[in-house]
UniProtKB/TrEMBL annotation:
Lineage of producing organism: Bacteria, Pseudomonadati, Bacteroidota, Chitinophagia, Chitinophagales
InterPro entries, per the entry: DinB-like, DinB/YfiT-like
Protein source organism: Chitinophaga niastensis
Protein name (Swiss-Prot/TrEMBL): DinB family protein
Superkingdom as given in the UniProt entry: Bacteria
Coiled-coil features, chain-numbered ranges: none
Family matches, as Gene3D superfamilies: dinb family like domain (1.20.120.450)
Domain named DinB-like: residues: 51-189
Length: 194
């Protein structure tokens, strides 16, 4: 019969400390270099650490009155403007792009990612056959994946940078940009769609 190998006590203590360690998250004032252009989104996020901003953004999505929003899913407030479903799909698509860029910077990928043509994305969503509930469920799933990714980054990774469009941005700035982008569009939804 094989004997089970025992871990040294010191290693057990290390494992317990490592597993219970909560990675600290930085606030917006730790963003360097300043995120030109994207600061309009970052400035919408409350003065909280990134982990709190991520968690609050998901709570906001869970608190949406989806049945009420569903009634306005195909509504556009003016000719040529996106429908409510398009706006939520845009938030999702853009978050995927921001998360990919953050991952590139975190992994030291020095390529400059291509820009995103949001109108081309919107024109090719094939969203008419989807319910708004389904679109919002997709956004929640993407947000959960974004949260898991950022939760894996220690502070030194959050400070890594890359080029976004033509501006140098940090992983931390990308996280706050994604959260501010959602706030920006939810403000527009409240003002023009409801």
């Amino acid at each position: 019969m094989l004997k089970k190998r025992q871990r040294p006590k010191a290693l057990n203590q290390f494992v317990c400390i490592f597993i219970s360690h909560k990675i600290p998250y930085m606030k917006k004032d730790a963003i360097y270099p300043a995120a030109q252009y994207y600061d309009r989104y970052i400035n919408l996020v409350p003065d909280v650490d990134l982990q709190t901003a991520l968690d609050q953004s998901l709570e906001t999505l869970h608190a949406l009155d989806t049945p009420q929003l569903e009634l306005r899913g195909n509504y556009a407030y003016a000719p040529g403007k996106w429908t409510l479903k398009n706006v939520f799909q845009h938030i999702t698509d853009t978050e995927r792009v921001f998360a990919y860029r953050a991952m590139m910077y975190a992994r030291n990928d020095k390529q400059i990612p291509p820009s995103m043509d949001q109108d081309e994305y919107a024109a090719n969503t094939l969203i008419d056959n989807r319910s708004l509930e389904d679109v919002i469920a997709e956004l929640k799933a993407v947000r959960s994946a974004t949260i898991a990714m950022f939760r894996s980054f220690p502070d030194e990774v959050l400070l890594k940078t890359g080029i976004c469009w033509k501006y140098e941005m940090s992983v931390l700035a990308m996280g706050f940009t994604a959260m501010g982008h959602q706030i920006h569009h939810l403000n527009i939804i409240r003002e023009k769609y409801l």
